[in-house]
Amino acid sequence: MNNPIRWAIWATGAIADKFAADLPLVADAELLAIGSRSMANANAFGDRHGIPRRYAGLPDLLSDGDIDVVYIASPASAHCGDALTVIAAGRHVLVEKPFTLTLADAHRVVAAAGEGGVFLMEAMWSRFLPYFDMLADLLGQGVIGDIRYLEADFGMRFPADNRLFTASTGGGALFDLGVYPLQLAHAVLGVPTSLLASGLIGPTGVDLTTQIALRYPQASASLQTSLTVPLRNEARLVGADREIVLPKFLHCPDEIVIGHRDMSGGDLVVDERLPANQQGNGLHYEVAAVHSCIRAGSVEHPLMPWAATLEVMAMLDQTAGQIGLHVG
C-alpha cells in the first residue's frame, strides 16, 4: 500500500465536521492536523475526530512540514487569501465551494497554483458522487437525446440568525446554494451564450432569492435559489420526448429518474428509477480524486479542472453584477 496522504483541515465549521467524518473512508488518507483561529475550537474539533495535531492560526498549521494537502473550510470571504497562503507554503489545496467570491480572485488563486506547481481543486463534491457518473453515462448514451431545457432550483427557508444572512463572510443564496444549479448547467451544457439574472437583495446585503436564465445554441436553462423560500430542490433535464429528473436534493440525489410527460405536461410517467446510493456524507469521493492526482503528479483533476472553476465563477460574477450583489 502507498504511504498515506496526510491532510490538514483549516477551519472547524459544519462542512469541516462532515469532511473529517468521511476521510477515514479513503484507505490511504490520514487526518493529521486541524487548524482554527481559536485554539479552543481546534482542540474541540480534534477531540471529536481524533486528530493528533492542533494549531491556532493558518501560519502555525503550515509550519507543520508533515502536511501534504490542506482542505480549506473557512468562510467564503476568506477562501482567496487562505488558498494563496497555503499555495505559497508549497502545499496542495482543496478549496470548499464557492472557490472565491470574485472571478478576479479565482484567477489569482489559479495563477498562483500554476506558478507553484501544486495541486488545486474546488471542492465541488457533487461532480464526484456516483450519480454524476451515471448521469454522464445516460447523457452519453442518448437516453433523452439532446437536452432542450434544464430546470434546477435549490432553496430553503433559513432562520434569520443563520450565517447565510451575513454579507461580510460571503453569505447569500447565490454563492452557497445557487452554485449547485449553476455548476450542473455548466457540467451538462457548458458555457452559455447569454445569462440574464434577477434577484432580491435583503436588508443585510445578501441575495435572498435569485433567478437565472441561461441561453445556449440549442437549449435553455432556468435556475432559481433562495434563503427564504422552500423550493423543490430538484433538477429536470428535458429532451425531445423524455427527461431525466434528479430528485431532492439535486446535488446529491439517491436516485436518477427517467420518464416522460404527455404533450401538455402533466405528471411525470416514470420509465425507470436508477439507485445512486452514496457512502457517508459523500465527501470522500472528492478526496479519492485528489489522491489520484497527487500520486500521478497532476495539478488539476479532469472532472473539476481549473477552467471549469473559472467558467462557473464567471457565471457567478455576472449574476452578482446583474442583481446588484456586492461581494469581495
UniProtKB/TrEMBL annotation:
This is Predicted dehydrogenase. Keywords: Oxidoreductase. Gene3D superfamilies: Dihydrodipicolinate Reductase, domain 2, NAD(P)-binding Rossmann-like Domain. Transmembrane segments: none annotated. GO terms for molecular function: nucleotide binding; oxidoreductase activity. Belongs to the Gfo/Idh/MocA family. It holds the Pfam family GFO_IDH_MocA. Residues 5-121 form the Gfo/Idh/MocA-like oxidoreductase N-terminal domain. It comes from the Bacteria. Residues 135-240 form the GFO/IDH/MocA-like oxidoreductase domain. InterPro entries: Gfo/Idh/MocA-like_OxRdtase_N, Gfo/Idh/MocA_domain, GFO_IDH_MocA-like_dom, NAD(P)-bd_dom_sf.
